[in-house]
Amino acid sequence: MRSFPLPVALTARLSPVVVLAAAGWALSSGPPAAPEAAEKEPTEKTQTQSATAPSATQAPRTYTAAPQPCAGVAAKTVRSLVPGARTAGKEIPSTDSELRRTCSWNALKGYEYRWLDVSFEILASDEAAERSYEGRLAEKSGGGAVPGLGDSAYSVVNLTTEDKQQTREGVVVARASNALVIVTYNGSDFESKKAPGTDEINKGAIKAAKEAVAALGDGVKS
Fold it and tell me: Residues 97, 160: one domain?
C-alpha cells in the first residue's frame, strides 16, 4: 500500500481607590479630629475588602475537574468511528489538566483515514461556560442545534479540499452546567480523493459527544 499524507487536524481556551478627604478635613478642624480620622480608616478598608471578597451565596460549581478524556468514549464507539485505531487513545498534554483535557484517536485503514478528538473544559461558573459556548458558536456557520445533548449543543460539518483531496470535518460543542465538551471528527478516502458523507461525519461526532457528556459525571464534583 502506498504512503499517503495525513490531513492536518484543526483543533483546538481581572485597585481599590483610596479617598484622601480625611487629611484635608483634619487640617481645617485641628488636632482633636485625629481620633475620628483614625476610626474611619479601618471602616474604609473593611468596605473595600467586602467589595472584593467572594460572595458567600455564590452557587457552587457542578464540575471541578475534567474526567479522563480517553475514557470518555466507549471502546466499541472508537472502533466504529476510527477503524484500526488503538482504543486507548492518546491524551494531549495540557497546561492545566484539572480544567482542560483532550484525547485523540486516528488511524489509516486501507485508504480510509479517520480522526477523532474529544476535549473537556471546566469553567468557573455556568455563566462563564455559557459565554465560552456562545463565543465558539460565533466562529461557526452552517450548522444547527443538537436537541437533548447537555444544556445546549451545536454541530457543524464542513468540507475542505487540498491538492484535490477532500476532507470532511464535523464539530460538536456541548455545554453541561459549567463544563464544555468539544468533539472533532473528520475523515478522508485517499484512493478516491473523496470525503465521507455529511451524515456519516455528523452522526459520528454527535454519538461521541453524547458519550463524552455522560462521562462528565466521572469528573470530580463540588
Answer: yes
Q: What's the CA angle centered on 7, arms 6 and 9, to 5 degrees?
A: 125
The helix/strand/coil state of 33 is: helix
What is the torsion angle, in degrees rounded to the nearest 10, for the CA atoms of residue 68, residue 72, residue 78 and residue 84?
-10
pLDDT for 44-53, tens place per residue?
444 433 333 3
Give the pTM.
0.73
- Show the domain range for 210: 69-218
The answer to whether the beta carbons of residues 179 and 122 sit under 8 Å apart is yes
CB 153 within 8 A of CB 81: no
pLDDT tens digits for 167-191?
A: 999 999 999 999 999 999 999 999 9
Instruction: Report phi then psi at 85, rounded to 5.
Output: -80, 155
Residue type, 201: I
Q: Is position 81 within any domain?
A: yes
Do 99 and 121 touch, CB atoms closer than 8 A?
Answer: yes
CB 173 within 8 A of CB 180: yes
Give the residue carrying C-alpha cell 474611619: 40
Establish if 16 belongs to a structural domain: no
